[in-house]
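Session log. Operator J.P. requested a structure for one protein chain; no other inputs attached. Running the standard single-chain path with token output.
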Amino acid sequence: MKSDKNQSGLDFRTYFNYKEFKENYSQDKEYYNEKYPDSTEIHFIEEGIKHYEICLQNVTYITSTSGEEIIESEYIGTNLHQVILFKIKDGNNVVIEEERKRLKYAFERILNYFISEKNNHEMFFGSEKYEKTNVIEDNTRDHESESFKLFDKIRYEEIGDFDMTILLQETSKNYNIELLKALLYDLSFYLFEEKETQENGYTSEQIDLAIKERINNGLEVPLNTTTKPKNLTQKGEKLFQNMQSSIDLEGLLFPYEFFSLYRFEQKIKNKINELENKGINKTNIKLQWHGKNVEFTELIKALHVNGTFKGTYENAILSASEFFGVKINPETIPQQLQEIKKRNNGNETKFLTNLTETLYNELQNKTK
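Structure written below.
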């Protein structure tokens, strides 16, 4: 965070992440009112809108290859633009595209917060409503529920498995099953809301570009997978085909955005299952995967493609890996899929083919 002069020549703080902005919003507003006693709250809000519109322009129109300054604005000081460039460039002075997107997303959220505040004051000032940026819906939550604060913490901070387990135990009051179910429900709603917000943050041009990049890199474009219902009408058949061919935007654009939350979700589900099954006679045998990781990847990919596992492929393989005790590094998943795709001469589904032959031979022997 730093202080910059905006269009009116007033000092205005620039935040580079939404969490820090929200934590300091009330304090910054008080500071502004003390420094400029003749101003009103709406002045502070309008200055915020102007300031972050310019911040957003500067991070949006920087080219991803050279960091070339495209925006020329009398409103923005050289210092702020240089700070933005510094934050998104690597040691070779090349823009890091993921960091640019992250900063753009942060500016969009902050801008939309100011716009919401502006619109809330409309009845008193009679001004026209601002339109929220079309790349992202307003993501501020007036209620800021405790569960959502927890999900934000897990999503944005470095939370290890140990800390995550402690958080779950404390939040659910030592694994109260009703609290666990309520937490799981809230998390489902949070993920639905946040994924929709993320998806709305991309233009059709950006989506097309992401598709082309995957194709150029020899990667498949992720599609939504669902199980086909029985007894579909002709119209239903057509609708199902359209649904099947729709692009999985999460898998395409931000496959690891909710990685920590999917792990947390699985922990909640596991604990609920454990409590519900308590008292039922069960063996203590734990399933263990003895095959290769690439074979595990091939198996889960097949189950995901045919609709047995719902959601994204990344979520499916990470959940299954936790169940079978397989150590999977999320960053190696694309490489393992590439290794499978490089096979030829009928070996594209090597593990599944061997699996089918082994089962067939076993069944044949049983019938003899």
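Operator note: The longest strand covers residues 2-5.
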